[in-house]
Amino acid sequence: MEKLIKLKLTKNRIILIIGLIFALICCLVVFYAIFNTTSTPVNVSIDGEIRGDVIIFRHNGGEPLHPENIRILIDTKEVPIGMIMFQEGNSWPWSIGEIISVPYSPSFHQQTVMVQYSTGEEITEIFTFDILPEETPVQTISPTLPTPTALPSPVPTPISTPGNPEARFTASPRTGPLPLTVIFLDLSSGVPDSWAWEFGDGGSSEEQNPVHTYTETGTFSVSLQVKNIEGAHTRIMQEYVNVTPAQVLDVAVSAETEGFIRPDGFAQFSVTGPGSRIKIGGQVIRPETGDTIMLILEREGKGSISIIDGQIVDFSFDNILLYQNGKIVTSGYLSEIFIPSSASFLSTFVLEIPPSQGEYRIKVEGVTEILQGNEKGILVMHLQPDRSGMMLLDTSLPYSVQYRGGAVSISY
Q1: Omega into 93 within 30° of 0, i.e. cis?
Q2: Which end of the chain is more exposed for a tag (fewer CB within 10 A), N or C?
């Protein structure tokens, strides 16, 4: 009898374990169904318009599109995600009513533009049209789109075959205020296997589709040399990029919500006096007079900055990459900084404050506006000292953002 009871207990335990495993599998299936965000969008409606050397796309209806899922191809050549530009301060995901643009180069032959939704394993064509040869440069496309159907795989139509290379490229934007970040797109034929860019300001790159930031005003010629086993070709575009002086706005923002600095922005300045010290990643750097310092924020950041009349006494962020006179020195948490005297401060830092129901107090050029809630959020572009030489930022506290300084633009 005692052995029988033990056997029954063992069987009951086995049944219980099997039941728990089954319940866990069910939970995982439900969790995946609820939170999986890579499903193909339904009834997405897009139209497009060619304006000069860019293609404008408008999202007219359907699901929002995320950057990891969207592919834009021009004659089967994918446009890098960094070259997709939002208008009116919008950002990903690409939602109804929002407009994006990509650069393109007119051609002597017909080009096919395709927008695809990709999950990595499945590709859905959601929009396509043909651009007529250069003789007909302007047209508007407003197709009626059916529900997207899944394609088993993309069917590329090569636009170039191996041969003597010919350098061609485009860029966006080609004009704008200092500092100006430009994305270059290689459109060369002949299937080159090496690229040599010269940006006209002393900068260069060997990437196929580089990103370059101009930190001085002027008009710059750009050249691209491409090579392969068949030969080499160089194209020089005279006065191709125009960088204008920045028109700085005096801005003050106070918000009862969280905010952050977008990743990949930089701050750059020249050291104009002795006694400087920067501690980053546990290493102490002592810049000398005349040094150029660049601080790049590698990931989305929360922290603080304090600059008064060229004296930098606070710049506390994690994930900072430090360049000294154009060379990488160190990276990590920037915990201490003291620059007694600096000049020529530039930055591409973007302060983003997401939508919230809290109170916003915004002051631009002396005019104050108080908002109770904001559905679009706030973007403050290219943070820098204001006309009085002051720049104060604090995003380190929860549910509080404070900024006073200069900006090239602000949208909300």
Answers
A1: yes
A2: N
